[in-house]
Amino acid sequence: MGLPHRIPFMKMTGSGNDFILVDNRNGLLDLESVGRIVPMACRRKLSAGADGFILIEDDPEVDFSWRFYNADGSEAEMCGNGSRCAARFAILKGIATGPRLSFRTLAGIVQAEVRGRRVKVRMPPPHGLETDIRLDRDGRPFSLDFINTGVPHVVQLLEDKLALEAANVFEWGRWLRHHPRFHPAGTNVNFAHVFDSHHMAIRTYERGVEAETLACGTGSIAAALVAAARKLVTSPVEVLTRSGETLTIHFKDPPPLGQAASTSVFMEGEARVAYEAELWDETLET
Prior knowledge:
Elements: E1 6-14, E2 17-23, H1 31-41, E3 52-57, E4 64-70, E5 75-76, H2 80-92, E6 100-105, E7 108-115, E8 118-123, E9 127-137, E10 140-148, E11 152-157, H3 161-166, H4 169-177, E12 188-196, E13 199-206, E14 211-213, H5 217-229, E15 237-240, E16 246-251, E17 265-270, E18 272-280
Parallel strand pairs: 2-3, 4-6, 11-12, 13-15
Antiparallel strand pairs: 1-2, 1-18, 3-4, 4-5, 6-7, 7-8, 8-17, 9-10, 10-11, 12-13, 13-14, 15-16, 16-17
């Protein structure tokens, strides 16, 4: 199948992450086409530009299913901020009647509640908690905790806000993202600081975007759960992202250190519409 001449889409943002959302229930795009379209559509200045690309498709058991793609065209299991945008998109387009809905991702079923621009999603149970991972880069030590919150994340908790501001997120994040310790899937990389028992700040290097992003929902969840496992925070946790917006993370029973993670996790924040438009085929050419 060739590329459609024009592709209707909605541009949305969730706490600084931006996404291109396409209603694909009519099969406008096939999977072969999507693999070529996504990297070109997500190029900034040359096309619409986005951190991710979301296809909304029919599902016989839940309100809809999605396919989520990183900006480089790789398909990801989950995206927290993307899930909030997808839920509101479904309400706006009449795909779900709301305010409560559910949809299928590669990481499992996600439940959501949409109240205007405010969206709260119940995330798939986190798993795979590993603590005190020690790595060294040219004499600089990293003390990391790992958890999968739908996608893999490592978290380094930093001692103060100045250390967080000074963190070389791009260089350190790129090195850790590709470190053999996390092969073959690689990992997202988070640097976080705890202000008090209900407030944190975070910076994230995202796998697939291959850069620091203004926010990462699954990364904010990972940081909150790691800090809770270390008894530094309790639910709910307000996580200040690089965009200046805050995500609220709710959870029950954080796992003790060294044990497998499994808890109910909810993430809440705004999902905003930027605009609706059509992608022309000429902006999807190399």
